[in-house]
Amino acid sequence: MSDGQARRDRWARLVPAGYSAILALLITGPLLGSGYLLLRDAVSTPRSYPTDSALGLGDAAPRAVPQDALIAVLSPMVDGGLIVKAILLVALWAAGYGAAILARELLQVTTAPQLVATTVALWNPYVAERLLQGHWSLLAGYAALPWTALAAYRIRSSTPLRRSRGARRPADLELPTDRPENDSPGGRGGRLAAVGPWGALAACLAAAGLTPTGALLAGCLALVLVGRRNMAGTVVLLLATSAPWLTATALSTAGSEPSDPAGIAAFAARAEPGLGTFGSLAGLGGIWNSDAVVNSRTTLLALVGTFFLVAIVATGVRAVVDGNASAETPFIADSQRAGVQTRRRLLVSAAVAIVLPALGATAWGMDVLEWLVTSVPGAGLLRDTQKYVALAMPAYALCAAAGCNALAQLFASKDRAAADTAQSQPLCQSMDEMPRAATTAAACAVAPMGRATTAVISLTATIFIALLTLPLFDLGWGVSGAIRPVHYPIGWQRVAERMDGPGDVAVLPGGMFRRFPYSGRTPVLDPAPRMLPRDVLQTGELPVHGRTVAGEGARAREVESLLLRGGPATDLAELGVGWVLLERTTPGPLGESKNTLAQLNPVFSDTHLALYRVPDAAHRDTESTRRAVSAVAHLLWAALLIGGLLLASRSRRTPQHQ
Q1: Residue 200: domain span
Q2: How far is CA 448 from CA 113, 182, 452, 617, in A?
Q3: CA–CA gap between residue 592 and residue 566 (Å, rounded)
Q4: Rounded distance, CA 350 to CA 339, Å?
Q5: Residues 313 and 286 in one domain
Q6: What is the model's pTM?
């Protein structure tokens, strides 16, 4: 390869990476300042602690495992708010860049269509709604999807397909025999090349497994794409990377309990203006919480944006489906056949990811899901069906890139046909209409086809990007400023420093959501469980659309009921409560709790918080065996994440025989 070609290849790789970084920064811009992410379900704090709840061993279901444990381990060294913002920014960048790489490898498109794929992956309602809902860790799973598809494709293409008995490869497909020993299948380079895609898949599944839902998203996609011969290895990797929340589910009492069936209707996908439920989902929207919807999607711009997105995707479906490797071709390169099968399976996955959530919003679909969550432990992960629309993103990105390329080629072919027609006639129809100096061959020459095609592709990509971004203009700059950092009062740090004795923490007012003066008008999850060094009891109850979806925290409900009716402090102590935290500046039920607080020992008080010590609190420690098992599961997850990244990176750097 010449130096000029190498420079062009490097530039072609840098442009999508830089474009993805620009979009990610444009979306998360306000978060780059000092402060902490505190919006609905997103809670970042200066420091968190490896409590039982962080390990998923508390009374509530382990929905934030292993993300809470990761922050708890890293935050003593790096500010926890910075960690969360960095993960979110890297996740968005990786989602866009991964879509570009997927389009380049599966479609062999140039830079401009890759930028269209990046735009589809980043600038869409799904990203906006999950940001507004505070699902930063779910977006890490979302970002892993194109990379998971890429790793699965490479695994599939490196696995020789079985051929009928007695069949032989044609001579022109035989592997060369004069390659260096180090690049042979048994050599060091060959071994690295073989295991590199598996390392990449392990890293993808681990990154997606920052939350249980992310693990399911990436795991489903990997199992669909790797092929039957690689299925067993993929299942092993999926179970290993999901070990933190699987072990937490098995070890905690809440993990084996059925979920409240009321959550199915509460979390069902929602129709947007001018669109039915199916149309909203096809446009990558339709989240259950109407308050977590970008403003432009509450108007007819939702219809306009969905029309443009679906139309752009539709232009490339045929190009993605078609391929040179057909089922009737007896001998074809394994990688080429794997590419066609990967593209087709991604399309099927996208269709299923849209149709099933739409069916889940119907009456009979809700009945099926209610039966699942009440009969199958852990099936509560399925109640927010709109989450799984993320599986459509890789196929959407591929189709948009293919459509851009196909339309540009169509326009260029028409231009070429017109040029060929013109060449069969005098190039300048009337010399009298032009100056004599303009009658030269240069003035009448037709531009080279390659250059014209590049210009047409760039113009088509620009139009596609404009059609994708303009209807969703308010996604930029933190979804029009809705996502911004907050600053905690110093009292939180003082409370954490004073909490030096045993016992769990009960919090007043009742409920899990707060409205602090410093957090704005949007309800936010109580930061106490991540801010304090002791386990904070939470009921897990979620207010949705005027109804309450019950949680798994039975002991937390008992403690909250005791406080609200003003029960005796001795009952709190028997329940293992050693501390009561009163959050003064947020609305919520207090009941007769002042009667209970009067029996406690004041420890700290300011305008925002008041901390009380419960006398003679019972000591309730989690069994050391359970914590040890959970710690091993988290270490396994971390090892697969880091080791997979290193293995994949090293195998890509190893020179292979050409």
Answers
A1: 11-159+185-400+631-653
A2: 21, 43, 6, 84
A3: 5
A4: 17
A5: yes
A6: 0.90
